[in-house]
Amino acid sequence: MLDRIPQSLQKPLGLTLGWAFLVFSILAIPLSVVTLQRWFQIPWWAALIGVFLVTLIPYAGRFAYLGLALIGAWYVIDAGFSFSGAVGRFID
């Protein structure tokens, strides 16, 4: 697949994709926590424990973790990049 991309664009494209993957990997835990907080109206520490438990499931947990992170990213973007706005209103 990389043979179709011009040689001069391969390195910048690879670096861009690599950095994007790194940033998303770092933000995956907070984004998953946002999703669980929004869905179940639970405090952040309980959502963090829930994310940890989801990651213990061998294969389905990895897909669930990715899905939670993508949905959390949607909520954060929809709230104007505000984590507290993405979670919504609830009593902590």
Condensed summary:
The protein has 92 residues and is mostly helical. Helix content is 76%, strand content 0%.
Q: Low-confidence spans: pLDDT under 50, at least 5 residues?
A: none
Topology, number of strands? 0
The whole-number mean of residue pLDDT values reads 90
Compute the separation of the termini in Å.
49 Å
Strand fraction = under 5%
Helix count from the secondary structure assignment: 4
Query: Which percent range fits the helix content?
Result: over 70%
Quick one: overall form? elongated
Written as H for each helix and E for each strand, in order along the chain, the element string is HHHH
| Largest pleated sheet | none
Cα Rg: 16 Å
Structural class of the helix and strand makeup? mainly alpha
Describe this structure as you would to a colleague.
The structure is a single chain. By secondary structure, the protein is mainly alpha-helical. Helix content is about 75%, strand content about 0%. The chain has four helices and no strands. Helix 1 packs across helix 2 and helix 1 packs across helix 3. It is elongated. It starts with 6 loop residues before the first helix and ends in a 5-residue tail after the last helix. The mean pLDDT is about 90. Keywords: Membrane, Transmembrane, Transmembrane helix.
Tags for this model:
92 residues, transmembrane helix, mainly alpha, membrane
